[in-house]
DNA sequence: TAGCAGTCGGTTGTGCACAATCAAATGACG
DNA sequence: CGTCATTTGATTGTGCACAACCGACTGCTA
């Protein structure tokens, strides 16, 4: 059964802790479930599309993200990579080792601070950038989005993500 | 304060108000990269938020998705689960075994067709549904989205996903 | 009815992702 | 100087995800 959506939800929006009163839950809950599910699905759809394209270069999608960061900045510490890509060392360490073994990056301890490891592209890694040049365009076409839609979607996802981060942070603080 | 991905890029271009940007590939490529990245990030942000909540029930997020499907339909074949959740048997088989070992589902070969395996909730699995009842509401609040935004985002993601699926299908057909 | 192509799950191997834990280096403080 | 908390990567263990492959079952067809 389908409830009418148009019930009011107009009350004051405290970003803090509203008890979340709406009795019209059915519809909302359905939406929540669908959102989580479709997000999952979209993520995997992207992955599926990138996979064969990147395979030509010998990269996986997360490896590609790392190479993008390294190409752009010339060199990045593991910490910086982890922050910008939202990955922890348990994920990055083996991933970077695979990239090193593949010959795309060099890893070395910083002389300034022996705790940090600096990642930089090798010659081969830099050369790879050329071969990867047309990937974004190919992917872009597949999405079927124009610039407007692209940036709207990006904005919406950014907002959700930062809301979720804030919520997680909140929970963190509570213990 | 915690910044997300969408931080300003190096230049001061405001997205959305391009006058007439047909040949301006740089901007487009940047958007592509950001979209893929933020999608990845959003997916993980959701996961991070769900993780501790579901841990109370002894479920992971994909397991939760399976239970949602099973709760709703009473019983589902592995094939059906795979189709609706976009998971293949290599992922589902061990996942279902873990759910079985946890006591939430039963798995048995269909008498009608010995090839297929039917999954259904146990008593304990059905009981779990009650305890999971308030999860959507808690998550929903954390997203900070109202119903309108929620369904817009859902629509946008659905469109992208089906475009990507179509593209992948296209590629498939070409070999 | 005998054979065979297609369907359905399962297994194996690789890689991503996180939690928990650890060791080494650093930096602040007495 | 020595102590100790912090920072930084690495390691281990669990679970998700897919590709490639296998074996059992089904259903069609010669």
UniProtKB/TrEMBL annotation, chains A, B:
SUPFAM superfamilies membership: Winged helix' DNA-binding domain
Gene Ontology MF, one: DNA-binding transcription factor activity
Primary residence: cytoplasm
An annotated GO cellular component: cytoplasm
Keyword terms of this UniProt record: Cytoplasm, DNA-binding, Transcription, Transcription regulation
Gene3D superfamilies the record matches: Winged helix-like DNA-binding domain superfamily/Winged helix DNA-binding domain
Matches recorded under Pfam families: Staph_reg_Sar_Rot
Biased composition, class Basic and acidic residues, residue ranges: 1-16
Gene Ontology biological process terms in this record: response to stress
Region (Disordered): 1-24
Protein location: Cytoplasm
Domain (HTH marR-type) ranges: 32-162
Superkingdom assignment: Bacteria
Protein name: DNA-binding transcriptional regulator, MarR family
